[in-house]
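Two proteins were folded this term; both appear here.
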Amino acid sequence: MLEVLGFSVGILYLWWEYHADSRLWYASMVMPCISMWLYFSKGIYADFGLNIYYLLIAVYGWWKWRSGGDAGHEGGAKKQLPVTHIPLPMLAAATGVFLLIWAVLFFGLDSLTDSTVPLADSFTTALSIVATWMLARKYIEQWIAWIIVDAVSVGLYIYKGIYFYAVLYVIYIVIAFFGYRKWKSLLRS
């Protein structure tokens, strides 16, 4: 039942993300609560921990999108955060953070837990942390990171027998392709 509910909230989240609608952050606060129980019960511990991060980053993302980010307020009117490309120095730093988190999580999962999927679990978790931060900043490249995360997650969830989530992540991949194109048009306008 929770898997179906998580699936439904995930679809709503994607709809709002595709349209760059700040309501996506509300779904971002509900879905982690559902997913934490499911992941812990299946022994996918890094994804469990990731959902704690998702709750925190959802508040940050909601605030960032609503406040207009660094653009702030001009003339007393709220300015919405625009879709942009990630600056190259920021991309290099984000890549370094991803690699560091992946290594630390892999070591922890491999040596301190009974995880049967430490490599994939730590990979998707580390890249998801960076991708969610990119989403909160409205960087278009977040879609590319999500395509990679989603593709690896499909295999992971099939392997672990979480079939509704595997289907959800296939849908995520398709929407991420279209989302990238949509945000590209928003970037140009």
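Next, the second protein.
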Amino acid sequence: MRTIRDIRLFENIPILVRAALNVPVENGCVVNNYRLRRAVPTIRFLAERGAKVVLIGHSGEKGTETLEPVARALGGLIQDVSFFDESIGERVRAAIRDLSPGHVLVLENLRRDRGERGNDLAFARELAALADVFVQDSFDTCHRAHASIVSIPELLPSYAGLLLEEEIQGLLQALTPTHPSLAVIGGAKFSTKEPVLAMLLEKYDKVFVGGALANDFLKASGQEVGESIVSIADPARVKNLLANPKLVLPIDSVTKNDQILDQGPGTIALLANLAQKAKTILWNGPLGNYENGFVDATDAFAYAVANSSSHSIIGGGDTVAAIENLGLLPHFSFVSTGGGAMLDFLAKGTLPGIEALDKYTI
């Protein structure tokens, strides 16, 4: 897979970059710019060499959000950033022709056009017509078979950005952990976690399941979960994993209104002990109902990992946000910008967006 270091010509060349622009926005302002900070090295690499840098990406899930506040926030990190309120068409092409070398133009949210999620080839062709080179640097969306992820590489010479390269190298280490090793998977939706859990139980010495995901396992093991969220109707699939002696479940919980909302002090102590012994720790997903203020277990485990001597690999939006809020990011060995993309990569060893580069890069 070629990277941007392999591009031969930069000066005055329009380069289309699929960047990690999906950051939380509230009241028209970016409230966490972590992904933008990680996107900067690739943008700066291209801009400093005189390329016309055209950034494409998405914001939110509704398809109506705008990337204008993201462009403003990016402008606080690098110079010469402007925003254009369309993503394809003659007006966009004219704006790119007028762009000065070294300047950065952020185009509007790709998901405003149905062709993005629908992987419409006509939409991909419109995007490809904007530039001479394509750079994939949005690892967080490389698990999606969207137009800007898998179809543009069919149409343009394509390269991996510095962030994508870093993500692949960092997560490949997670697939060959140093022992003793600990994996911690939180969040919800057993169906999306089942493949990675099966892989982790093969490669890691201990695999702890927390968050709402743990409710599926607790219920399948015959424990009472009350009105807690359960994501799977077929307990047989969970029981197959329950039989594995490497699997670790919460031993106590914090409850309210007959719902499990966080892990209790016994589980927190158990995890801290496992973290101190581990040489590799992989963590994705909060350990409680983080969005509604149940943060004790997540924060406690973050401190435990930060104070350990392990090689630590983390990912997932809420997990990274929690660690950043605590000021602990520098104490972790590798922090992924992906949540679902990270889990898919670990389960499969590749992603559609990466395979597209491998197949079409010239």
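The CA atoms of residues 164 and 205 lie 28 Å apart. The chain has two domains: 4-165, 175-346. These notes refer to the second protein only.
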